[in-house]
Amino acid sequence: MTMTGTIEAAYEVCEDTTRSQARNFHYGIRLLPRAKRQALCAVYALARRVDDIGDGDLPDDAKRRELAALRAAIARLDGSSDPVLVAVRDAARRLPIPIDAFDELIDGVETDVENAGFTTFDELVVYCRRVAGSIGRLCVGVFGASDLQLAPLYADQLGIALQQTNILRDIREDLLNGRVYLPTDDLDRFGVEVCLGADGALVDDGGLSALIRFAADRARGWYDDGLRLIPLLDRRSAASALAMSGIYRRLLDQIAADPSLVRDRRLSLSGRQKATVAIRALAGRPA
C-alpha cells in the first residue's frame, strides 16, 4: 500500500470510530468539508482512546500504565504505525492542531483514575478544562479562526460548558461507577448526599433538583462566554461548532426544566432532535 493509501486507510478507521461512537459530536463533524472532517475524526478517535482507557475495566495501575504508554506514543507521532496516530500525524502536518492538548486530556483522565473528587467548583473547572477544554482547543486547530489568540480561550470555555452538562446528565451513571463529580461545596450548600434509593434512582428530597438547576444556570454562563467563538469561524466550522454545542445546550435546558429526568436514566436527545439542531446550525442559528 502506498503512503497515500496508508493515510487514507488511517482516516477511514478514524471516521468509522466517529460514526459508531460519537453519538452527539458526529452531527457537527459531518457538517465540515472533507479535509477538516477527516482531521476532526482523527482528533476524536485519539481522544476516545484516552477516554476508553479511563472508563475501562482495567485495574487502576494498568490504566496508569496504558495512559503513560499512550502519552509516550503521542509524543513520538512520527514513529507510529498505529492508524489513529498516523491520521493525527497527517492532520497535524496540514493544520495547526495543538498536539500538547492531548497531554492535558490525559492529565484529566488520570484524575478520573485517582477518583479523588472535587471540593470546590474551581477545582472542577480545572478538571473540565483538561478533559473538555482541551478538545475545544483541538477543534479550533482544525477549524481555523480569524483570531487565534481569542479562539482557543472561547473554545476552552465552550468545552467546559459541555463537560458541566455531561456531569449533570450522568450523575447516576457516574455514581454507579463510584464517581461523584459535583463539588463537595455545592453538595453541602444544598444539603445533598448523592445516593440511590431502593428503586435504583437517585434520592432527591428537593435538594438535588435545586442543585441541578443552580449548576445548569452556572453552566449557561460558560456557554454564553464560549459561543463568542462562533463569529471567529468560517461558515462550515461555525455550523459544526453550533451543532455540537447546541445538542448539549438543549440537553442542559431539558435537565434544568425537569431535574427528575436524570434520576433513573441517561438522558439523550432523539435522532430527530439532533438533526433539527444540525439543520439550525447550518443556517447559522443556535439550538
Structure description:
The protein has one domain (3-282): Farnesyl Diphosphate Synthase, CATH 1.10.600. The radius of gyration is 19 Å and the shape is globular. α6 packs antiparallel against α7 (121-143), α8 runs parallel beside α12 (235-257) and α12 crosses α13 (271-282). By secondary structure, it is mainly alpha-helical. It has 13 helices and no strands.
Q: In short, what is this structure?
A:
Helix content is about 70%, strand content about 0%. It is mostly helical.
Count the DSSP helices.
13
Radius of gyration from CA coordinates: 19 Å
Quaternary structure classification: single chain
Low-confidence stretches: none
Number of domains: 1
Spell out the CATH superfamily: Farnesyl Diphosphate Synthase
Mean pLDDT: 94
> What is the H/E string?
HHHHHHHHHHHHH
Residue share in β-strands: under 5%
CATH class: Mainly Alpha
**Share of residues in helices:** 55-70%
What class, by secondary structure content?
mainly alpha
Count of extended strands = 0
CATH architectural group: Orthogonal Bundle
CATH topology: Farnesyl Diphosphate Synthase
